[in-house]
Write a structure and sequence with these properties.
Helix content is 60%, strand content 0%. The chain is an all-alpha fold.
Length: 281
């Protein structure tokens, strides 16, 4: 069956099944070699709420935007709009450039989510998770996903992105986000790998309660953006990091209803990027 499928069709199949397969693999890794000890009952309840939220998000965003990404990509291609359509490059080089540009945009978008109060209202639900594991990679408010999709629709004609390039980058994002949110550590391999990619140890810093650490390490796939923008940060004794946001420690905020209500609650102080607070020894 598979030899008869085109490359784009294979990407669409991978787009459907990769998130579930990767989730199972990293969940198994966490179960076998967890970085932080976990209570089994809390872990299952925590994952159930996060994954139920993710399923509802897929249905809602699909209903809201449908084939908008595919439409914008086809329109851009038919009208020869966008940077990539103007460059005299082959398909491989255009694809590499598309992935790099999309990842650069993801860095900018992530940082904007921490700097702009309206966006932070929605993004803080992701950071309010006190038990970071692979299921946290799926924990995003539908409002944040809607804003993200709208901006991506504008980005498609500007860059001249084709739908399959977006799917390809999406697969990289699925792998990277589940990998670096997982409750695992690569040990001595982590410092080597994070010269190029975002790793679990690097992203743990970003989920810290300390403002200085919370406002660092924004990269999604490639770690170079934090180094270039001077937002890269690491520290020893990662086992002492406390995840979550102090204003959302009440169990109510970890329920499905509580997560939905997070952006509309009385907002806690927005993370201050200029605030400096030293991590514990």
């Amino acid at each position: 069956m598979f030899p008869e499928l085109t490359g784009i069709e294979l990407l669409h199949i991978a787009q459907r099944f990769a998130p579930v397969i990767l989730l199972g693999l990293f969940w198994s890794w966490e179960s076998w070699a967890a970085f932080k000890p976990f209570d089994r009952r809390i872990r299952y309840r925590h994952a159930f709420h996060n994954l139920l939220l993710a399923v509802l998000n897929v249905l809602f965003i699909g209903l809201l935007f449908g084939t908008a990404v595919e439409f914008m990509s086809q329109w851009s291609q038919e009208h020869n709009w966008g940077l990539l359509h103007q460059l005299p490059l082959g398909t491989i080089w255009k694809t590499i450039l598309a992935v790099v540009l999309l990842d650069a945009w993801m860095y900018c978008w992530h940082r904007l989510n921490h700097r702009i109060p309206l966006f932070w209202r929605f993004h803080r639900m992701h950071h309010s998770d006190p038990h970071m594991d692979v299921s946290t990679a799926t924990r995003f408010h539908w409002g944040e996903l809607a804003f993200s999709t709208l901006f991506r629709l504008l980005l498609i004609p500007l860059l001249g992105l084709e739908s399959w390039q977006i799917i390809l980058y999406g697969l990289l994002v699925y792998f990277s986000t589940q990998f670096h949110h997982a409750n695992i550590s690569l040990g001595r391999l982590d410092p080597l790998l994070r010269w190029l990619f975002v790793t679990p140890d690097m992203h743990k810093i970003h989920h810290s309660r300390l403002h200085q650490e919370l406002n660092s390490n924004y990269s999604t796939v490639f770690s170079c953006w934090d180094r270039l923008a001077r937002t890269y940060q690491m520290r020893p004794h990662l086992e002492t990091i406390d995840f979550g946001l102090p204003d959302y420690d009440d169990p109510h905020w970890q329920s499905l209803l509580g997560m939905w209500k997070t952006p509309f609650s009385s907002p806690p102080p927005q993370p201050d990027p200029d605030h400096r607070k030293s991590p514990p020894d």
